[in-house]
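Input.
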Amino acid sequence: MNAGYVVRVEPYGDTADDAERAGQTTTDESWDWLAKPTATQQVTVGAGTPDQRAVDYVVGEATWTTTVDEDRTVVTDDGRITERTTTEQRREAAEFVLVPEARVGAVSDTGALYYIEQMFTTLDVEKREIDLRQLVDSQDVTQWGVGFAGRTVADGGNKGALYGQAIEDDPDLGDELQHTPLSDVGFEHRYGPESLKAYLAESGYVAAYGDEWATYDFVPWLVDVVEPHLRDDEDGVHEDQATLEEAADEPECDDCGRATDSVDDTGLCVVCRDKAEEDGADPYADLDTVTEANGGDGDE
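Output.
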């Protein structure tokens, strides 16, 4: 696991070693919901600093049944076209990683939080936002994507996104963007011996990947880089930033499933497109045409 929604973990009794499977069955003995740990491991965080220490973390999975209403267009026997609302049961699933000692974790679907708390009966697990401006200023990063909101940028609008290489060095907007509230950001930086790429949203979504990265690599990065910049106060998302509810109207990435306006004609979000290119694939290979970022005025 190397992506998900970051959560604040408040332990008041349980440790990672105390995790036990929890669930509830239906009348036909199938699982209505189930949460369980799949592994408990130890990893070093704060490597090379006075705060270097070993912490336990638990990875697991949860599955549950949810009821959804769907509007369908149907044709009746007499040829009339009508709309009907049908109620269906859908199976959902999520992965999670929790580091109780470091008070942080991540979950691939926030719908799993209730079931995770049923498994860890003395843990509070709540989704948190990230102060991206503070995080970026604390790291030596090269930004390849920036979403900004709430501040007029260089006589332009107060909400938008920029993609490119080393955006912070842009002669026109670079300096201004260093003082602008961020709604999301993508950057490259070194973490220990690794050179990695990361994407983070103020609303709490994080993704990081390096060469053959796995959960064992993701956990220390989550603790060292992200956790110090979680918002534990009542500050909400900026009024100009899309909330998760509003994001429901945005297209979903065909790979990670995240709703974001960065999904383009490939069906992939900017994170998954970048990951595909890192793996040597061309996400645009199956498209007949590609819209150029400069509006099509580039060289032929």
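The helical segments are 113-119, 132-138, 174-177, 215-226, 244-247, 270-278.
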